[in-house]
Write a structure and sequence with these properties.
By secondary structure, the protein is of the alpha+beta class. It has a single domain, classed as Clam (outer membrane lipoprotein receptor (LolB), chain A), CATH 2.50.20. The protein contains three helices and eleven strands; from the N terminus they run H-E-E-E-E-E-E-H-H-E-E-E-E-E. The longest helix has 30 residues. The radius of gyration is 18 Å and the shape is globular. The relative contact order is 0.19.
Length: about 180
Amino acid sequence: MKIFIILLLLICSAFKTLASTKQNIIQNLNDTQNLSFTFEQNINGKIEKGNCKIKYPKKIYCKYDLYNKKILVSNGKSLVIKTTTSYFIYPLEKTNLDLILNKKFLIEKIYDMNEKKISKELINLNFNENNNEINIFFDNKTYNLIGWQTLDIYQNLSTTLISSMVKNQKIDENLFNLPSQD
């Protein structure tokens, strides 16, 4: 009987820890209005770096450290990827960024997500939506978003890792205006 009670207490403790981790992530997301950060993106082994600003809900501006002056911009409805030689525009809802940039959606999903502690520092939460698996990574101490992994619109494995994050800074709203084609 004593063993049963000890096992029951251990199981309850594990559920409480899991719930508190998810609650801390949710509270941190609720408190976050915007993010500025540097990133490293790996798409099928091709590494790209740059900096981004996210303003919830669904707005992002990323400037890549590339010779072709690549930028990625979402105004919350459309997503533009522009370089010196190309211009692509997509409905945001057709991309996984629509989900990743939707804080309210993420918070709702976190309750049902499968949690994996990758290390002492890293928590991975994953979910499936629209036949796509999306992995989201959080810091285990700060509960900050530190990256995500998805298949991009061309079905390439894309992993984005965040560093040097600053939260809730004043961001110029014009940054999220879609660039023109010229």
